[in-house]
Amino acid sequence: MDESEQAGTGKGQERQAPRRSDATRAAILNAARERFAADGYAKATIRAIARDAEIDPSMVMRYYGNKARLFAAAVAVDLSMPDPATIPPGEIGRTLVRHFLSLWEESEVLTALLRAAATDEPAAGRIQEVLREQLVPVARRACPDPAQAQARAALGASQVLGLALTRYVLRLPAVVALTPEEIVDWVGPTLQRYLTAERP
After folding, report:
1. Same structural domain for residues 67 and 91?
2. Number of domains in the chain
3. 66 and 101 together in one domain
4. Angle at 65 between CA 59 and CA 70, to 5 degrees
5. What pTM did the predictor assign?
6. How many other β-carbons are positioned within 10 Å of the β-carbon of residue 191?
7. Are residue 62 and residue 139 in the same domain, yes or no?
8. How many CA atoms lie within 13 A of 60 on its CB side?
9. pLDDT 10s per residue in the chain (200 long)?
10. Domain range for residue 99?
11. Are residues 129 and 96 in the same domain?
């Protein structure tokens, strides 16, 4: 092989390297989500995740450093919360319930995180962090007294997390049987009261 061929091969390898890197990261994260969901944070191991991803454990450590960082990356959650200013005041509760239902239906990450949070402190802390960063600002903009935003967001979280637990983790038949719009009709007014009603 002459120098031009060697150079061309090198450039091709450079172009392929990012694609291989992206594929490796994706494989690790997919395996981590499934393993954390199945075993919880404490029991899941880097070795088991690497085996599921069909790579060497050293590659997991190379990309993520340790299990805590891998967990944080695997359960990165963007709730994409709607802005209350864009929602008719009387529809905030129903809109948010509908939004959360669509998130739970479409994201296995959220279900994995909720399942792990029942037994693992890091997972519970991650849920608290997500809600603090993404739900509290919504409550602050929606409620009549911003000083009550954290309490109102916590009450709202009790509804949406309880709904998710019974529908997607425990799979209680009566809850699973409800259509999304039936759930919106039942839970929406409660969430509306938590976020917008005057304090009792």
Report:
1. no
2. 2
3. no
4. 90
5. 0.73
6. 26
7. no
8. 27
9. 444 434 444 444 444 445 678 899 999 999 998 888 788 788 899 999 999 999 999 999 999 999 888 988 888 788 999 999 999 999 999 999 999 999 988 877 788 788 878 777 888 888 888 888 999 999 999 999 999 999 999 999 999 999 999 999 899 999 999 999 999 999 999 999 999 999 88
10. 84-196
11. yes
